[in-house]
């Protein structure tokens, strides 16, 4: 029926769950099995600015092999990585040491991805995080990103820019500027629907502008100016209209439910509820 209407079936797209949706104390086998039980197809690993998670990028070959064995045993892949650690080491920094550390962080993430089956690394669109953005930091960001894209090309790992709440990368159009300028098949866009809604952007206009470069989408509910910790259904994101747009435009990339419920007692149930919520909104979109 959808094909007859010229629409794609988004239920066939792979749906992932962000690692921080599940209890932090779980081991990898428990975490992967919980995500699978909740109805997701894969997990997104978090490499944030903490020493613990950055340390994952320095795992030995045997540690990485152990993770891959766990993935195969659970029959649940880790297809994407949320690399937010560059908030600590921004690649646009005016400090050369910080900038080099940020570039090395991305190179290490690419190597980890190659070893562990990760297909897409989401890069936070920050030239600077704690310090002011300047013409110099913006240029540094471009140059560093181009360097990282060349390394990604050598390893056949996809890098994708996240839309943020900052001036540098708060729209898909701004992310596309860097994709078009660098012109690497290994640098694409990984927008955050919630961020775009919370900052008041025209969702249809933005996604139509960059649809051909979008490889994955973060799904979360938000309110104006509030981009975290809003349960699905408690925000004002119009998921039905959004999924209808994606169906019409034949979006074939990944989806990831982004949640921060790793310290809540009902986190596993919340993940199940989120998957059911998303499936229901897609079903509603298909009926329009």
Please write the CATH class name. Answer: Alpha Beta
| Poorly predicted runs of 5 or more residues | none
What characterizes the major β-sheet?
8 strands, parallel
Ends: how far apart? 12 Å
CATH topology: TIM Barrel
Structure description:
- It is a single chain.
- With 288 residues, the protein is an alpha/beta fold.
- The chain has a single domain, classed as Alpha-Beta Barrel (TIM Barrel).
- It has helices at residues 28-37, 51-54, 61-74, 96-116, 135-155, 172-182, 193-198, 203-210, 239-248, 267-287; strands spanning 15-18, 42-47, 78-83, 120-124, 158-162, 187-189, 216-219, 254-257.
- The chain has an eight-stranded parallel beta sheet with strand order 6-5-4-3-2-1-8-7.
- Helix 5 links the parallel strand 4 and strand 5 (158-162).
- The chain is globular.
- The mean pLDDT is 95.
List keywords for this structure.
globular, 13% strand, single chain, 8-stranded parallel β-sheet, alpha/beta, TIM Barrel, 288 residues
Topology of this protein?
Elements: E1 15-18, H1 28-37, E2 42-47, H2 51-54, H3 61-74, E3 78-83, H4 96-116, E4 120-124, H5 135-155, E5 158-162, H6 172-182, E6 187-189, H7 193-198, H8 203-210, E7 216-219, H9 239-248, E8 254-257, H10 267-287
Short overview:
With 288 residues, the protein is an alpha/beta fold. 44% of the residues lie in helices and 13% in strands.
